[in-house]
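Sequence in, structure out. First:
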Amino acid sequence: MKVLAIDPGYGRCGVAVVEKENGKENLLYSACIETHAKTDFPERLGMIVRKCEQIVKTYEPNSMALERLYFTSNHKTAMKVAEVRGALIAVAAKFDIGIFEYTPSQVKSAVAGWGNADKNQIAKMLHSLMKIKRSIKYDDEYDAIAIGVTHLACSQNSENS
């Protein structure tokens, strides 16, 4: 099983391709897609979509896992992130990839065993679960990897039920 996992955003969008092989999680790819704040939103959205389509073509994932949107006090930002999620869901539909969503607490529980784990605990646990061969600059990328690990754990559990 191979999953394209995404921490949606339009300034920084974390992406990762994670697979489970022989009972072990493997990180095949991860990055943070960055767009410039002075670029018009439709162009930023297009950049994210094109990069995700390229990742799908390269890695051929079986599923896409996204962080479920939760509303913050900044509704304008939440609406833009919702638009990014919609565009990413359209990418999954275009390539006939199943879509799965996870809340931040589900991700924290699956990766660190505790729904209130902080970013450092998540990053440390990810390094113990799999080989991450390069330095990761932004939490968005760790978040995407964690979402992928969560999906692999949840889909494994549903297969064993």
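Second:
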Amino acid sequence: MTEDIDRLVKESLQHATNPKRSEESESPGLIFAEGDSWFDYLAYDILDKLDWRGFDVEHVANRGDTLLEMARCRAQHYRLAKLLLKIARDKRRPSVILVSGGGNDLAKKGTLRKLLNRNNTDKPILNREAVGEFVDVTLRQAYIDLLHYLTFLSRKIFPNGKSIPIVVHGYAYPVPDGTQFSYFIFWRRGPWLKHEFKKRGYRDREQNTEAMKMLLDRFNDMVQGLSSEPGLKHVKYVDLRGCLSNKLRDKDYKRHWDNEMHPTPEGFEIITNKIEELLVEMGVSKGQAGPNVSFDDGGP
């Protein structure tokens, strides 16, 4: 594992070119982020709100990206290396790395369907074996690979000090109601969840919402456990499950969910508050260099 990651880091740096860099490239207070649409969604995602609140944010997040792509796509590795090298050339050093990933993997067309048993059987909605294989094996390994890559890459570019802390999050409980993302009339995305349940014969929204809750619990438990992996003690987890409503009565969830996958501005505000709490606790400051943040990570 270590040799493979080291080889990938060297390849990324060679592709991005490795310019002369000052050894004094320390500039705490900077947030560097990699992720999906929760970091790259219209004009009111998590990173936008952190930026508006005065945090210094740089990112390579891209809506629609899956965790598997972030972990395995060479082009994405090169983008990461290129931006981190630029930050180093500017004599800056991130205080923390934020990562958001996995939602698009679960919602990808055909994937969620494979995690559901067919209706009209004695089996529960979720296929426990399929969920275990995909969440606890496939996605977990992808997350581990990505986190190790970010750790090795940042250590190579910023050799002074310990590993830069990495913050990961799970997702809140969505409602599979079939609501699409629409931006003007000509640009629509989704729905992602409802049709997958429908394909398996499930049409009860309350039942489907409960199934998504169980699936997201399994995913969050996996993400929360990543810091127990060797070399990843510097990884911190933010639990967002209780932040947004998934109550169907009077469509209460509509206050927090714009569609099946993305929060409303109010919902993003609540989630950002939760993430900001941890950032402040870690010493990441707004608009100025904050104290150095480090953990005894026992990493490479």
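Remark: The chain has one domain: 2-282.
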